[in-house]
Structures are given as structure tokens and as C-alpha cells.
Amino acid sequence: MEIDEDLNLLPSSDDVTETNNAASTSKTSPSKTAVSQNQPPVTTNIKVNIGSYSYRESSNTIKSSVVGSSATSERLPAHTVTEDNQRTAVSDHLESEAAREEDLEESLSSSQSTELPTQKLSKVNCAEKIVICVDVSSEMNERRYRAKAGTSFSAMEIVKKALKLFISNKLSVCDPANKHSFAMVLMLDEALWLVDFTSDIQALFTQIDNIDCLQENDEEFDMSTLFDLILEKAKPPLISIEKNTAPPYTVRVVFIYGRSHCLPIFDSHESQNLLSGSPCFFMDIVYFHEPPANYNQAQDIFQELCFLDTRGFSYIFDFARTPTKVFDAFAKMLGHPLQRPIQSQAGFVLEPLPSLYDTAEGM
Fold first, then answer.
1. Which of these, 363, 336, 357, lies nearest to 57 by C-alpha position?
2. Could you tell me the CA-to-CA distances from 343 to 32, 75, 314 in Å, in that order?
3. Of 27, 95, 255, 294, which has fewest CB within 10 angstroms of its CB?
4. pTM (2 decimals)?
């Protein structure tokens, strides 16, 4: 399935070679960074097609963009003409390289000393029940995102296209014996269950196309109503961790929120605590917001959303101006929660798909 050419949000040639390390769930700033760590690779790789590019997930890949990498070394000054100047420049260059390597080793050792969350369940490719929660506030309809061609788009338009890619790719890589299913929830001032679990891709696409921004009063959203719904409609299975029992399915919430002036509230944390206590429950977060400023609450809202990740297994993304990264984020969420690395350890690379000529040559 290809991205609509009118949207024109595919990466540029510079983006193809860029490593997009996943953002850590920082509680301090919507602009998040993560240090890749030298850990063993995960047991599975995911490779999916997005437009004319393939997306490959690997674990703990250290790229030249990491501060301290020797690949980021500077060129020697162009004005070195004498032999003494050349020796001095080379000496300074080598010292700089040594300092860079020391900085890299120090950053890696410090990050490895941090205790990381570990899965209590087997890394099995069981079926996923994925609950897609879409904010339908008026802010999601604001055309604040601009493509490279200059055309502006709303967050809702981008989300619809990204969700279709996510669902079609997710169903294409799943085991037919353990087929994933999707449900949909709309978020107004409280959560509204829209579509029950199904694997019918056309029915899901129809529902996505019919989503409209309905909420005009964006001043309140009760998060407890969302967790109450999920606990009622998609209760995680009860399994024995001691016996290392493979779960029949997992429940994952893909929470898409787009308000910069409405801090989510909780009437009760009971359902959230029950769900978060299950090793079969996961929650990924996609947050669209205005650039943080004194006149909005984007920073505080992002912090609260990060606090929803109580076990450290969530993938959390935020977007203020860059629509292309939305498709990157949904591609990164294709991995099974029981098999993917935690977000701060994940590394991703965009690669061009082989042409038909190259494929024929390789046969």
C-alpha cells in the first residue's frame, strides 16, 4: 500500500540514510532523544513497505549520528599549507578523535548501568488485540502540518493515512493462525467505543474514512472512561508467569491525542491500575501538539502522557511540525510488544526498495 502522492510526505534522499533512533519517554521535554546501547539484537526483524521505501527494525544500532562516533570526525582545515601546520593539524585531529571515542565509551557505559525493564513473558508472536483510540477534538482538524510541496494538512488527515498503512502492514506480517484484530475508540470529553474487534480491513478503512472531528469543547477529557471501556471490552488474559505460559493474545492501546490546551484528567485510576498490572497489556502513545509555549499546556500534557507508561514498554512519539515522522512512528509500532526492544534501545533505518531490474538480476 502506498502513501497518497498528494501528501508527498516520503523522506528526502537525506532522510533515507538517516538513523531515526526512537525517542525516550522523557518526562521533561517533548523534544526527546535516546542513546543507543550495545545490547544483543532482538529475536525478530520487521521489514515492511512504505511507499517506495522499506522499513527495517534492528536493535541497539550505534550510528554515526551518536555524539562521539568516529564517523562524525571533522575534516582537516583547508588552510594548512606548511609541514609544521600539517603536523599540528593531524595531532589535534587525533587528539580530538581520542576524546570523541572516550566520550562514546563513557556514554555507553553509563547508559548500560541503568536497569532496564524486562519482559516477564515468552517472546511469542501471539495474536494482538489492538485498540485504536483517536482524538476527535477540533484541534485535530487544524491544518498546521505542511508537506514538502507546500500543501498543508491537518493531523486528522495524516492520522487516517498512517492508520491505514499501519493496519494493512500489521495484518500482512501476522501469522494467519494468530490473526490480529482491531477495535476503534473515539475520544470526545469521554471515550466512546466505535468498532468492536475485527480483522476485516475494508470495514476498518471505511470506519477510518468516516471519522470526523466532532468535539468543539476541547477543555476536558476523562482518561478514566477510556480505561474503563478497555477493561470492559478488551480484558487481558490471565496467565501464569511462573510457568512461563504463552498468552493467547495481548492487548495494546494505540492512543492518538491532539490537544495542546486540555490536560487529561482521571476520575478514578482503578481500571488503569488493573490493566497496567497485566503483563499482557501495552500502550503506545502518539501526541500531536502545538510548539510548547506559555499560552498552551503542551509540555504538561506530554509529561502526563509519559506517566501513563508505568512499566517502561510503551513507544511514545510527539509531533509539532514534521508530518513525515508520523509515518515513521507508525512503522516503528509494527513490532510485536513481546518481541520488540524497549524504545530507548531501538534503532531504525530507512532503505530504498530494490527495483524490479535488481530483483530480476538476483534471481
1. 336
2. 11, 33, 7
3. 294
4. 0.68
